[in-house]
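Shipment paperwork, digital attachment
Item: protein structure file
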Amino acid sequence: MKYRSLRDRAARLGVQRLVQGMGMGVSMSMSLSLLEALMGVLKVLLWVAIPWGVASVQAQTPTVTAKPLVMASTTSTEQSGLFAHLLPAFKAATGLEVKVIAVGTGQALDIGRRGDADVLFVHDPQGEELFVSQGHSLKRQLVMYNDFVLIGTQSDPEHVRGLDVYQAFKALSMGATPFISRGDKSGTHVAELRLWQALGLTPEGAFYRACGCGMGPALNMAAALGAYVLSDRGTWLNFKNRGDLDILVQGDRLLLNQYGVLVVNPLKHPGVNERAAQLFANWVTSKAGQARIASYQIGGQSLFFPNAHANALAEH
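Attachment content:
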């Protein structure tokens, strides 16, 4: 019914032009009769044609749905419980669902290089800068930081408690107590390897055991074996199976653990959900996102410290 006025106008205009173009000198009565007859025929044709055309256009127009945002992230942001605290607030603010792929930072960066994620939330500053220089993202933004801590049993067989990082790692390299390395190219694993390198030490021998696993499983191995392990503070504070483990070394400037967010470059990877990715990057570095990060605590202790304000300082 909603097409009736359109059909009537189209039919009347079309028939009038048809009759005018005939040039046959017919009488007025014959012209009127012919006009009415032709209008009836055209109405029928238009009644069929217009809905068919509309249906054809509708069939070719896909239904637009909100694609979930795919985020590749380090395991520490998930195993620390941060995402369970952070992402519901993001959804409430934007209506967007987030699908998290929680892997080591090295794997997360590789996922971004393949264009299989829209945004990355990781903690390997050098690896992130390389990612940007390769054109996979246009920029890296600071989000938050915490620190790494050296965990060991309270009995501390290598006597590293209270030492600085260099002294502690040197004692571990000369001792017999196992040290559990992530061995998975994660941000924590890369940070650990850079510590050994910066200190001029080589981790080798029976004491050094690479598990190729996430932070939670590495802590479980340390608890089971009475071993030492380097952990991010956030995962440690959320870790329940501590047994006899305790923080032995902390507070050294070399143990800073910086997190960044990177939107995957849509020019290099056209299939990424750039709009949703940019919304997340903007939100997590905004006052609202930063306040949400700051509010996450366990046992009265903050797990992460927002520092997106440093982005503005770095740009000037």
